[in-house]
Amino acid sequence: MATTRRPGGRSARVQAAVHRAVTELVVERGADQVTIPAVAERAEVNPTTVYRRWGSIPALLAEVAIVAEGGAPAPTGDLRADLADFAEWTLADLARPGGIAFFRAEVAADVDDRRAGLRECLKRTSATIEALLDRAREAGHEPPTLAEVMDRVVAPLYFRVVFSVPGTDAAYARHLAHAVSGKPESR
Amino acid sequence: MATTRRPGGRSARVQAAVHRAVTELVVERGADQVTIPAVAERAEVNPTTVYRRWGSIPALLAEVAIVAEGGAPAPTGDLRADLADFAEWTLADLARPGGIAFFRAEVAADVDDRRAGLRECLKRTSATIEALLDRAREAGHEPPTLAEVMDRVVAPLYFRVVFSVPGTDAAYARHLAHAVSGKPESR
DNA sequence: TCCTTAAAGCAAACATCTTGGCTTTCGCGA
DNA sequence: TCGCGAAAGCCAAGATGTTTGCTTTAAGGA
């Protein structure tokens, strides 16, 4: 989305201000309380500008969510450790202020708009996992499949965060990862 | 919510009409396009009535979602078969017209309102699974834990439906169930 | 430096949702 | 059957979000 036809000074400033405003408002009030007029006011930008550039709240949130996402930890080749780190990072990403709020907003959005945010999110996660598994293969391990990691690590974490299941912490995230990376572990 | 102080004819009629209208609109347009005025018009009821009785769209959707939910299949005691049936039913429930839409609406709702819908949903699912596991125990099996079923069957199904992961069908649901009920199965 | 024009700003019309005061209906117990 | 009162209906005011036509600003190339 940085590919605008005139990315220079003013547009960039407006975009930055709007992104910051969205993040702040999502954190403060939750994604469903964020309106375009509110964002515009916080960013000291004209509402019309936001309407014309982004069109809708879901589109705006999707863009901000993608930009805001931090990088996953680099895989070392130690499958067990890498998966555990990945799981912990995924949970941290969801649990960070506004993290799950962005997810909620994308989940709630209309079907057409949805694809942009959710598809992108899934693609990124898949790529991260694949990189991790490739790295493990290079190191001579026999890793689980992408689907297994999705089903047994990522999905439970999302599910538990969305439903606010108690006891969903870093240790549990690692536990899920360990269960899929070979020898299970009691807890 | 059926515990109103005057559940007789008119109130009941209004409630039924509103429920029907909500369901229809969710299916037709998606949950995020459903507004109280639209529901009221469809139900041929005064908007003020809906505002006063339900207050907000999330509250209304939560009530409708709970009422609309069909009953899970009765457990037979055959753990493997019961879990597979349960998984397939869960997926069917999510995939039914408007099924995931209700979930989306609840996920998106504000934190306070959310508890009502999501907590209830989780509680019901837990109870269903527990019943199934108890039945299996009676029959002499040694079933997995509630958390295991949640993490490895329910969570992946929700995740996959929300993200529209291809290949998420009844067979896959059963595959997930089988993987957790003892001997895994290739696919 | 100057010119072109993409993008931001402004203001007013517009649509829509929400709320409040009041009246009317009608379920339900006496 | 009658009367009370909970709940539904009506309408108008108010608030909020959205769109539109136009003007102004300032990147970026000539």
TrEMBL record, chains A, B:
<keyword id="KW-0238">DNA-binding</keyword>
<keyword id="KW-0804">Transcription</keyword>
<feature type="domain" description="HTH tetR-type">
    <location>
        <begin position="12"/>
        <end position="72"/>
    </location>
</feature>
<keyword id="KW-0805">Transcription regulation</keyword>
<dbReference type="Pfam" id="PF16859">
    <property type="entry name" value="TetR_C_11"/>
</dbReference>
<protein>
    <submittedName>
        <fullName>TetR/AcrR family transcriptional regulator</fullName>
    </submittedName>
</protein>
<dbReference type="InterPro" id="IPR050109">
    <property type="entry name" value="HTH-type_TetR-like_transc_reg"/>
</dbReference>
<dbReference type="InterPro" id="IPR011075">
    <property type="entry name" value="TetR_C"/>
</dbReference>
<dbReference type="InterPro" id="IPR009057">
    <property type="entry name" value="Homeodomain-like_sf"/>
</dbReference>
<feature type="DNA-binding region" description="H-T-H motif">
    <location>
        <begin position="35"/>
        <end position="54"/>
    </location>
</feature>
<dbReference type="InterPro" id="IPR036271">
    <property type="entry name" value="Tet_transcr_reg_TetR-rel_C_sf"/>
</dbReference>
<dbReference type="InterPro" id="IPR001647">
    <property type="entry name" value="HTH_TetR"/>
</dbReference>
<dbReference type="Pfam" id="PF00440">
    <property type="entry name" value="TetR_N"/>
</dbReference>
